[in-house]
Every structure is written in structure tokens, then in C-alpha cells.
Amino acid sequence: MPPPDTPPAPNAPPDPPPAATAAATANSTVTQTQKTCSVVVSLTPERQRETWAKKAEFLLAVVGFAVDLGNVWRFPYICYQNGGGAFLIPYCVMLLFGGLPLFFMELALGQYHRCGCLTLWKRICPALKGVGYAICMIDIYMGMYYNTIIGWAVYYLIASLASINSELPWTSCNNPWNTPLCTPVTNPQQNPNGTTPAKEFFERNVLEQQRSNGLDDMGPIKPSLALCVVGVFVLVYFSLWKGVRSTGKVVWVTALAPYVVLLILLARGVTLPGATEGIRYYLTPEWHKLLNSKVWIDAASQIFFSLGPGFGTLLALSSYNKFNNNCYRDALITSSINCLTSFLAGFVIFSVLGYMAHVQNKSIEEVGLEGPGLVFIVYPEAIATMTGSVFWAIIFFLMLITLGLDSTFGGLEAVTTALCDEYPRVLGRHRELFVAFLCLFIYICALPTTTYGGVYLVDLLNVYGPGLAILFVVFAEAAGVCWVYGVDRFSEDVRSMLGHTPGWFWRACWSYISPVFLLVLFVFSVLAHEEMLGGEYTYPSWSITVGWVMTGTTVSCIPLYILYKLLITPGSLKNRIRTITQPEETTIPPVDPSLCNL
Q: Are 321 and 56 in contact (CB under 8 A)?
């Protein structure tokens, strides 16, 4: 480099004056901005994408989706079954290394690419677009049974409202549906072979299982239950039909109401006799159980299904965020709220289980149940013995309905966003009609679950619909993003939104830990699939075959689409593979609109 006082070369042009340099730089910037704007305009779809009216609406929508019925009926049971307070150690470990990285990954993907689970893959790895179709199938399967469970809660709510001037219908054994074996829970000389009024109300009045012989003969549709499910779908439709404009208003009720009710129920529960013993049983650590691999698998499974990556909902909800929204902070906040809600629900449930054990003079193991039996039999039993039982029943079932609603319309929002983004002219312009058709289609598919033997179909769909397939689908999603698209490229996308690159912890989880976490969880779940059905009913062999067909139709979307892309792509096999694993489209970060008017 010549020293500062070296004269310019004889043929070198003179340095332009500072003003000219500044003007040239400004003109260059304007030209480049105009080029960028023209590219953005040329790639911008005709329908401008909506954004959330308020940041709080997005957070409430994510919390509402993640916090569902499983937080109330599964986490407390899993916790006390796997070591009480000691279970929180594997639970937190699995949250940090498995659930949270996947949760953050999906929020960042949706926000950066601003599209649903189908169009997304054109910008990551076109060969894996089958993952998006698999997610849509999983959400449809889930809608076929999850809304029926909410319909049960609606049935209970109507029965509770009809009992305002009398007693709850599951309080006594003096009802037409009761059997000679019915014994009130407060009877000091209970028949060891007897059943409780709440159990008979659920099985013989709500479901009317006695009129079915299982899946071999499920019987006709129960009209009252089918009407309850219609009511659920109507609420879902009006939550989704206008997109985030309608969803953002609904979540203020469906996401916040459960917390109000949980706190009210907690305040009531801890004052009941025996509540202290129930909470002590819930939290007392059994450290030796940490040596059991099943405890760690249960913790991983609970975290995964609680946070809900892979259902496409997080992608859809975050796709309506502004580009520079801090999705990292959102992931930490919403996942923490979800886990704390599960922990809070444990206090609500076990304070009442302790009370029931006290009333019946039993141990808590004999009282407690997992799943629907906990919230449709055991908890209503306890409510029936309280002063002001009708009031407690009304608010409890309102809580169950709101917990279920925002989770179910979260899943259907994933399907709606995916298909409307993929087919903007055919479906995107007619969102209201498309959502109506989708709800009607899923309702028709759900009608068999409202038959007298529908409860067996609900369990089958729960396990073989999303239960097994979702684990493999999310593994394929994580592998596509982290191994094919690449952690470095994904981290650069996150940096363009947040202004900083994700740290080594997140990169290590995305590269190695989270995909392995999912693969191990999938293998163990497949090995234990029959245990997931549970219950006293023995499922016929043909139904298990049908279940595996459901799982297979979902999982097969991924390899079939890869094969399809290979066949339609020209060139040698090596070039085809290279082509279908490289992004077809590039997401261009938004430009300040004011600059485009220069």
C-alpha cells in the first residue's frame, strides 16, 4: 500500500469530490432498494398475509393450543406414577433437550417463511413436502375424535345446567340408567363389586355403552351426543372462519378462562379434608424410580405431546407474526407457562383425590384414574359430594370445554393455513367456505365416535391416528431442517429475524439431540403400542390392523412423495437427488414499504 503522501498515478482519474461520492452512494442504494422492492413485489402473493392484531393474541393462541386436556388428565397421573416430585427431574431434562428446541424451531420456521406446513418445504427441502401432507392427515384424524371428547364435556355441562334447582344426575342411584350394583360413594359399606353413580352416568347415560358390543357392533348414532359435537364444530368454525381476526378474539376467552377456573378449583380443593394427604402423595419423591428407563420415556412422551410440535399448529400460528418478532422469547414464555400449568393442575386434581380417598376410606391408588375416567368419573364424583355441587360442576366442565376448544381449532388452523397457502387462488380466496367444508367433512367422519360404542373408536384413533405417526413425522421434519437444509442455514435465518445467531446449545440440540430424542421415543412407542390402548376392553385383531393402516397411510406420505419427486425431476439420479433436496423458492425478508416509494 502506498504511503499517504504518494501522488496519484499519471493515468488515474481524479478523486471525486465528497459530495459526488455521497450522491453516487445514495443513488446506488436507491437503485438496489428499487431492485429489491421489484423482486419482493413480483414474489408477493396477491392476498397480503394477515398479522396478529396484538402480540398477546399470538401468545394466548400458542398457550391455548399447548395447554389442553392432557395437562389435566394425564400429567398428574404420570407424575405420581413415576416417582412424584422426583419425576420433575426427567421432565425438566426432556423439556430442555427435546421439547423446547423443537418448539423454538417450529415457531422460528413459521415466522421466517410465513407459510403453512406444505408451502414451507419448497423453501427448505422439496422432497419432504410429504411431511406437510402427513401433518394434515394427523390433524384430520385428531379432529375426528378430540371434538367428541369435548362433546362429552358439553353433555355434562348441559346436564349440570339442567340441575340448578335439583341435584346433579350422578349424585344418587335413583335414575333409570342405574343398575342394582350402583352404590353411592359415601356409603360406608360399599359393595366391592359395585359401581358408583358417576361411573354409571358416564358409561350408561352419556355413552350408553351397554347398547353396544364393542367395535364389532357399535350400534347406531346417539342423537343427543351427535348434537353436542355439532355445537363444538360450530364454535370451532366461528373461531377459524376469518383467520387470525376471529381466532385472536376467541383466545382471550378460551385461553384465559381455564386459569381462572383452575385457581378457583384449587382454592376449593385445598380446603377439603384429606387434600393435604393427596398433595403429599403427588409430590413425595421416589428417587429409586429414576433408575427405571420407563420413567424417562414417559417424561419425554409427556413433554412432546404437551408442547405439540409436529401438528403444524405452531408453524401456522407463528406464520402470522411480524418478521422481527422475538420468537425465541415467545418459545421460552409459552413453554414455561405450559409446564407450570401441568404442575398446577396436579395440585387441583390431587387435592380432590385426597378428599375422595378420605370420604371413601380408601388409598389414593384405588381412587385415581388416568385419562377421561379422571375428569368424567372421579372428579365429578368429588364435585357431587361438595356443597354447591352444581356451581362447581358448571365451572369445571366449562374449563374442560375451553381447554379442548383452542387445542382443536389450533389443529384445524394448521390444515386451513397449509392448504390456503398452497392453493391461494382456489382456497385462499374462499377461506370461509373452505373452513365450513373442512368442519363438515371432519364432523361426518367423526359421527362413528358418537355411536354407543364410539368410546372404543376414540381410544383406537387416539393411539393409531396421531399417537404413533406424529413421532415419526416430527423426526422427519427435524431431520429435514437440521440435516438437509442445515443448522447453519437455519441459524442464519433466525439471525436475520432476531439480530443474533442461536447459541451453541440450540445448535447442538437441533443437530444431534432432538432428532435422536424423537427417534428413540418413536421406537419405544411402537414397542408399547398395545399398552397405550389400556382399559379392560380387548380390541379385536381386525381393529388393530385398521389402526396400523391409519398409521401407515400417514407415515407413507413421506416416502411416497420423495419417490414422486424423483420420478418427475429430469436428469441423472445424482442430479435429481441434488435438485429435490435444494430449496425451490427463497424467502426474501420484508423491505420497509416507505423505501419502495423512492
A: no
